[in-house]
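Our consortium's second objective concerns turning raw sequence data into structural hypotheses that experimental partners can test. To show how far this objective has progressed, the report includes one record in full. It was chosen at random from the queue rather than selected for favorable results. The single chain below, 162 residues long, was entered without modification.
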Amino acid sequence: MKSICLKTNNEEVIKFIIKNLEKNFEDIVISSNKFKIYRNVIVHFKGDNEKGFLIKISGLISQIIEIFYEEKILDKIIDENYFYFEDFEKEVILKICEKIIELQEANLAYKKEILKGLVYEYFLDNKIMILDGFINFRTKPYLEVLDYVVDTSVTNYVIGLQ
């Protein structure tokens, strides 16, 4: 039996993961408890195909990161690297980033695969994931792709001004 624990305080994320686990996974038992700092979602896999389970759960967690955290990550990259832009300009750049990701989904498919791979590799050696910590400290290749998207968006924004 393989067990993993996802730790977060984001209630939307907890609802999303529990809903998707119940809907899309078989041979699992889910429990959700609040301990000291975090709310924990614990998943016990009772099936035989542990690798398939890890691939599937990695896809779900990478989807959570894209849905709930990607915009915040892009915003942070813009603030840190392009602090000299006005707030309204940063908002325009963020919209350009979102449009690039939307329109270039096929070309940026590797972004999702990178993220899934990072989550999968993490769960090969660990059974507990603090979601915010994972995003901040274990996703460098994924963040590099988002950094490229931001750079491209800034270039498009500046060219559009001329």
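The partners drew two points from this record. The CA atoms of residues 54 and 124 lie 8 Å apart. The chain has a mean pLDDT of 94. Both points have been shared with the crystallography group to help prioritize constructs.
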